[in-house]
Amino acid sequence: MSLVQNIVIVDYGVGNTYSVANAIKYLGYSKLSISDEESVINKADVLILPGVGAFEEAINNLRKRNLHQVLNQQVLVKKKPILGICVGMQLMASFSEENGIHEGLNWIEGRVKKMELPCMFPVPHVGWNDISITLKPPLFDLTSTNANFYFDHSYSFNCEEEYISAFCDYSIKVTAAIQKENIFGVQFHPEKSQTNGLKLFRSFFNSIN
Amino acid sequence: MLKKRIVANLVVKDGIVVQSIGFKKYLPLGKPDISIEFLNQWGIDEIILTDISASKNHRNPDFKSIRKAALKCFVPLTVGGGINNLDQIKELMHNGADKISINNSAIYNPQLISEAAHVFGEQCVVVSIDGVLATNGYKVFDYINQKYLEISPAEFAKQMVSQGAGEILINSVDRDGSYLGYDLDLINSICEVVSVPVICCGGAKNSNDFVEVFQKTKVSAASAANFFHFSEHSVNTTKYNIKKDINVRLETFADYNNTAFDENMRIKKKPDGVLENMLFVRIEKEII
Question: CA nearest B38: which of A9, B30, B1, A132?
Answer without folding.
Answer: B30
